Amino acid sequence: MRKSSIFLVFIGACSLALGLAFLDAHLQAAGDLPYLRQEIKVVETLQLTDLCLATEARHTRHPSQADWHSPFQSHPGALDHFPSGGIIQPPETVIKGYEPHRQ
Amino acid sequence: MSHIVNKQRNILDFALSSLLRRKGKNLALVTVYTLVVFALASVMFFTQALKKEATLVLGATPELIVQKLVAGRHDLIPVSYIGKIKKIRGVAGVEPRLWGYYYDPLVRANYTLLVNDKFKLPPQNILVGAGIARVRGAYRGRSINFFSYDGKPLTFRVRGVLSLESELLSADLIMISPADFRRLFGIPEGYATDLTVHVRNHKEVATVAAKIQQFFPDTRPILRDEILRTYKAVFDWRSSIVIVVLAGALLAFLIFAWDKAAGLSAEERREIGILKAIGWETSDVLQLKFWEGLTVSLTAFLVGTILAYVHVFWAAAPLFATVIKGWSTLYPNFRLTPFLSFYQIAILFFFTVVPYTVATIIPSWRAATIDPDQVMRT
After folding, report:
1. B53 inside 8 A of chain A by CB
2. What domains does chain B contain, in order, with CATH numbers?
3. Contact B221, A64 (CB under 8 A)
4. In DSSP terms, which residues pair with B199 in a beta bridge?
5. pLDDT of B4-63, one tens digit each?
6. Residues contacting B138, CB < 8 A, separation 6+
7. Which residue among B69, B167, B337 places its CB closest to the CB of A67?
8. What is the mean pLDDT of chain B?
9. Burial zone of B95 (CB within 10 Å; 0-12 exposed, 13-18 middle, 19+ buried)
10. What are phi and psi of A4, to 5 degrees?
11. Quick one: CA torsion of B26, B29, B33, B36, rounded to 10 degrees?
12. What is this structure's pTM?
């Protein structure tokens, strides 16, 4: 068998596998629909606002609800000392800063 | 047509033989290349699936939440605010919410306690999230002790465990009756944690929020759109952090690949010289190099992408889920619904296959345009 034939069969098989991944994603998403609906129902019924990703501090458990001071809650000037604070983004306005526009 | 196909297959045969002559070096290159594609694709698949799920699920959050702030901090809101908010045109209803945190020193974890009128819980009965049930062994029928705000122990009976499927939302939740909640935290009647406002017309939410802030300057209205934006930013930020961590490896690969693709070895230059001397056209040499580059990059792209799919959606991303999901004692245990799009794959293809293939052609073109005699002598 020619080397190019082996290579083309290999690429064809990989492409087919990638196509199957798309099919798998589609089927899994369709199969998960009842669970997603259940999650939506939970959010609706319990009036939840946030995903439960990190429970250690209020600004990481409820990033959309915590006040902007909560990462620095111990005392003025304190650094955010929770590990998950490093992977949860502060609000946009904090990043931009409060400096007035310079003309 | 068949002539063109035959010619290309012959060149591909030659390219594969040429790659196999330097088997060790090229195998190392394909392995590293595959790992880079795998890492990038895994981050991309994971964050996209999380983002999509968050958008879908959190689309059902209350459209407007009103908090009271005191000295910049979230404080209890008087229920008396409800009357005035209800009078604002467009407001369909206002409900007080009671929720808060409880730190359990036994397992060093924070729980979120929540009151919901739809769950009519008898006194001293609670429903717990699956994460708490796992950590505290708090299954149906068991008892769990908490200390109230004044240090008195309170015993609660676990009436049930919230569904496993909703763990992404409810791993640390405890559903409790309003009376027990107030007793545990010493919250007086007439106060709530925050208020949820239902607005008849979605387009009027921002106007209603502005009016609430006008009536009560000590409040902070939070819109549903803001919540969704927060989560989009959170996952973009997290995936960026993983990319930053991977950046070192990525740069090392870029140097390696650039060196391999752009800098032709003396042996390769001689090979080009010989091919030209025996009658190969410059375009043939370029096609040969194109096939060599495409073989390496396409193999790495396909294998890396498939491995990433298996890693993220079949094996639940064990390699870096901790970084993207978060850090906590009550670790939510959830499986992501795969959301795969052609757009994602196209971006990945463009950023991984195209640069390498192009990088292999340029130096070959330079070598192929020089006189064969000169190339073979150098």
Report:
1. yes
2. 10-58+230-377 (no CATH), 77-192 (2.40.40)
3. no
4. B91
5. 888 899 999 999 998 898 899 889 989 988 998 998 899 889 888 888 888 899 999 999
6. B128, B132, B144, B158, B161
7. B69
8. 87
9. middle
10. -65, -35
11. 160
12. 0.80
